[in-house]
């Protein structure tokens, strides 16, 4: 059976090259029959090229999806008409400058801030948030943008002309797409820049209207992760260099002169249109978070574990500063940003309690309190006296005396309501955030105390953190952290107490207990949550049980002023008392608090299970869906009734420090959402009781598309994708095939169609399926209409983007 987007694929497979279709911009292919005999020479050749096609389809199907086709008569209801660009760059009618931000944007984490002169500045962050000041940072106005992407960097040439850059992860496709927007009128309007080939971006700098540079993820077309432009960003040229693991920081003095840095101590110079090595001490597994260099060749870099290095050679060589910071700083601070002006240097990070200042190029250091605790991600000074710091929960701080005193001008005193601490990266349940953070507005933070990323298929801890952060932001959460010093990095280590203890002692120079407890106490004092959520460990999970005990001990120590004194004296943190600690129980359990994840959420417009589906799809393999989440209170143990809510009775009100304001609920929208969710829930319940392969099961396949018609297109596509996943889990692959075909036919523009298209190709080229269908000797027919004229160009574009999460199953048993 052939789907509506497969013909270009068949053309590629048959000839071994990309062929342009000659029949005009829209090629209509005649009806034809495909006998269930996959043993022909064509299919053998197709199977031999499956590996190549898997990679091609993962990317090229995105481009086929991402650009609209002109509708032909008889097109499905999901077809679109007219030209289109990437979904992340759609031009939309924006509210007037100064419009109110949504609750999600109001407390969105801010990643960068830049000043143009002494008065005008812009700050950018999550959920497409942009803020503007015209008085040196004392007051800020929200600036709407046509994206919900994570904006990581800003570059303004004047107070009117500038660029913002970032990344938007496409669900189901698992592609980090670069976002680059330009304004020429101070943010009143924005339009996308570029040729669509850029992956996720971390840094942008334009030197004039024509020349610029961007830095971000590595891709097949730019393994170095650095690109330059000479035509205002319309086209980009990759800088030569080895494949990077993704850059997190950069600073350029000219398009061909700069420094890039990232995970695991990566650091390279950019010169002569190529990446060059730098001489730097071993940084271990610490990620470099920020780097700067000035025209006098003086540079600074900072990172995790209190990392601070300076350079007097323009970044060629690096050394510790002349005056070291206090000895306890590496155990307390992860530095995220550095700013320098002349001989003055400022450092900040997590916790954001103090900003360190040196007036003499690092010879002496002084800490200055900020009045808040959450992480600071960027520092900028427009003069020696006026500066701004931005960071988590939308906080903006301003100083007028060179950083000696700081005042919160937006988001002051915000904190977390809930701190979730899973034992492993994949143990996190995204569905929890839908009712807690997205629906009820509780500010929620995720922290994985011990890294397990190497055992879970990640190339680095930084990569796992990025995926977790994307998942959390997608569901209204706020921040993600992961322990660095301790790791469960060997198979079986989590079940062997003796080996685990020896491994942790080796990783922490014999201070495993102090290291773990100190890091947990720091997180509690920094985020100041009302509620902490941990896991109920399995019987043989030694690591999980140790972590549970450590969290409960840390809760006691966090409120004790005699514990972790350096965090108070040097770090500026204060004691904090947690109200409750819950353990998340195994699947299908009942607890004091139980979330029905299939129940409708009024503000989300669907259930927590369905709302979390795009976030789950970002993972490979996708995280399993959950029907319920149950919790049991383990602290305090006074058995006070809690009325079935994690935060019931704690007086955490909307608009308070730990909870964002809530949108009003429309009664009409609520009733419609309840009807949609209930109908979907009823059908899912019937499907659970239907015998696989029965007539009843087959009838359900025809009902899913009808149910989906009641939903908005994006949600309808996600609903069909979830239904297909259900059939796949039950090994009803023919039913999954039928649902995926409906998904691709009805909603080809939605990201969920990509996963369906990729699975269909694997399914249709499977030797196992070929044999089974050959036995039945059935005949199937299909007809489609597709845009063939631009296929070659789209393939070329698709091959320019890449993702570490695109790996697909290789056998039908895994599909």
UniProtKB/TrEMBL annotation:
It holds the Pfam family PSII_BNR. It comes from the Bacteria. GO terms for cellular component: photosystem II. GO terms for biological process: photosynthesis. It comes from Schlesneria paludicola. Keywords: Photosynthesis, Photosystem II. Coiled coil: none annotated. Residues 104-239, 286-408 form the Photosynthesis system II assembly factor Ycf48/Hcf136-like domain. This is Photosynthesis system II assembly factor Ycf48/Hcf136-like domain-containing protein.
């Amino acid at each position: 059976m052939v789907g509506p987007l497969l013909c270009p694929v068949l053309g590629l497979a048959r000839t071994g090259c990309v062929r342009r279709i000659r029949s005009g911009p829209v090629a209509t292919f005649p009806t034809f029959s495909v006998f269930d005999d996959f043993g022909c020479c064509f299919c053998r050749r197709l199977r031999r090229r499956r590996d190549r096609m898997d990679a091609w389809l993962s990317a090229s199907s995105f481009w086929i999806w991402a650009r609209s086709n002109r509708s032909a008569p008889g097109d499905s209801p999901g077809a679109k008409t007219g030209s289109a660009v990437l979904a992340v760059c759609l031009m939309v009618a924006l509210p007037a400058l100064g419009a109110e931000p949504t609750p999600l944007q109001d407390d969105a984490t801010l990643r960068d801030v830049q000043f143009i002169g002494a008065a005008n500045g812009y700050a950018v962050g999550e959920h497409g948030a942009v803020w503007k000041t015209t008085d040196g940072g004392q007051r800020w106005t929200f600036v709407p943008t046509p994206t919900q992407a994570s904006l990581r960097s800003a570059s303004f040439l004047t107070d009117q002309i500038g660029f913002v850059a970032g990344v938007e992860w496409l669900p189901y496709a698992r592609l980090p797409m670069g976002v680059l927007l330009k304004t020429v009128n101070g943010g009143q309007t924005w339009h996308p820049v570029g040729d669509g080939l850029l992956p996720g971006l971390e840094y942008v700098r334009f030197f004039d209207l024509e020349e610029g540079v961007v830095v971000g993820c590595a891709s097949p077309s730019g393994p170095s992760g650095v690109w330059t432009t000479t035509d205002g960003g319309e086209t980009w040229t990759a800088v030569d260099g080895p494949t990077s693991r993704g850059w997190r920081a950069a600073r350029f003095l000219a398009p061909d002169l700069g420094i890039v840095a990232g995970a695991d101590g990566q650091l390279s110079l950019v010169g002569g249109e190529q990446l060059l090595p730098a001489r730097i001490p071993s940084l271990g597994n610490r990620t470099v978070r920020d780097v700067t260099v000035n025209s006098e060749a003086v540079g600074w870099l900072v990172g995790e574990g209190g990392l601070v290095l300076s350079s007097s050679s323009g970044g060629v060589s690096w050394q510790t500063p002349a005056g070291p910071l206090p000895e306890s700083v590496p155990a307390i601070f992860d530095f995220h940003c550095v700013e320098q002006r002349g001989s003055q240097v400022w450092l900040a990070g997590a916790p954001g309690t103090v900003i360190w200042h040196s007036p003499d190029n690092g010879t002496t250091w002084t800490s200055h309190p900020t009045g808040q605790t959450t992480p600071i991600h960027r520092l900028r000074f427009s003069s020696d006296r006026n500066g701004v710091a931005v960071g988590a929960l939308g906080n903006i701080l301003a100083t007028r005396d060179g950083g000696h005193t700081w005042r919160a001008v937006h988001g002051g005193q915000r904190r977390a309501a809930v701190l979730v601490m899973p034992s492993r990266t994949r143990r996190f349940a995204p569905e929890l955030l839908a009712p807690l953070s997205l629906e009820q507005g509780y500010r929620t933070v995720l922290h994985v105390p011990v890294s397990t990323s190497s055992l879970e298929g990640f190339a680095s801890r930084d990569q796992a953190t990025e995926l977790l952060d994307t998942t959390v932001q997608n569901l209204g959460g706020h921040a993600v952290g992961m322990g660095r010093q301790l790791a469960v990095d060997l198979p079986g280590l989590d079940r062997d107490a003796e080996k685990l203890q020896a491994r942790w002692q080796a990783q922490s120079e014999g201070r495993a207990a102090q290291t773990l407890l100190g890091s947990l106490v720091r997180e509690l004092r920094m985020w100041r949550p009302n509620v902490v959520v941990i896991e109920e460990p399995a019987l043989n999970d030694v690591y999980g049980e140790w972590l549970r005990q450590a969290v409960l001990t840390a809760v006691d120590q966090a409120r004790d002023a005699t514990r972790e004194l350096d965090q108070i004296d040097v770090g500026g943190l204060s004691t904090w008392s947690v109200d409750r600690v819950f353990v998340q129980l195994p699947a299908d359990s009942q607890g004091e608090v139980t979330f029905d994840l299939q129940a409708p959420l009024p503000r989300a417009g669907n259930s927590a299970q369905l709302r979390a589906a795009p976030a789950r799809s970002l993972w490979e393999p996708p995280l399993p869906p959950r029907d319920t989440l149950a919790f049991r209170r383990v602290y305090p143990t006074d058995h006070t009734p809690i009325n079935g809510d994690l935060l019931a009775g704690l007086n955490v009100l909307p608009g308070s420090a730990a909870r964002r304001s809530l949108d009003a609920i429309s009664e009409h929208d609520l009733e419609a959402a309840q009807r949609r969710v209930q109908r979907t829930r009823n059908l899912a319940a019937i499907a659970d009781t239907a015998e696989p392969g029965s007539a009843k099961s087959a009838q359900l396949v025809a009902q899913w598309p009808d149910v989906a018609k009641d939903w908005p297109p994006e949600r309808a596509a996600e609903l069909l994708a979830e239904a297909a996943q259900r059939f796949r889990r039950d090994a009803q692959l023919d039913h999954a095939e039928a649902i995926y075909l409906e998904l691709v036919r009805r909603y080809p523009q939605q990201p969920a169609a990509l996963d369906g298209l990729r699975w269909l190709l694997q399914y249709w080229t499977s030797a196992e399926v070929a044999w089974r269908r050959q036995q039945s000797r059935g005949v199937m027919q299909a007809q489609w209409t597709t845009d063939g004229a631009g296929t070659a160009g789209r393939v070329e574009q698709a091959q320019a983007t890449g993702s570490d999460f695109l790996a697909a199953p290789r056998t039908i048993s895994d599909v």
